[in-house]
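=== RUN LOG ===
request id: a7f3
mode: sequence -> structure
chains: 1
length: 45
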Amino acid sequence: MRLIIFDLDETLFRTKAKVLVIKGQTVIKRLNNQEYNKHKLGSGE
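=== RESULT ===
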């Protein structure tokens, strides 16, 4: 048996994916993966 695993966290590929931070029903921030890794959620986010 052979197992192959790929880690696709922008190590192999560059993407334009964004994480949306929503407060209520409004998008208040759009973060890339590096910004998301450092982001601390605020009140109500």
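=== NOTES ===
The longest helix spans residues 33-38.
Residues 1-45 form one domain.
=== END ===
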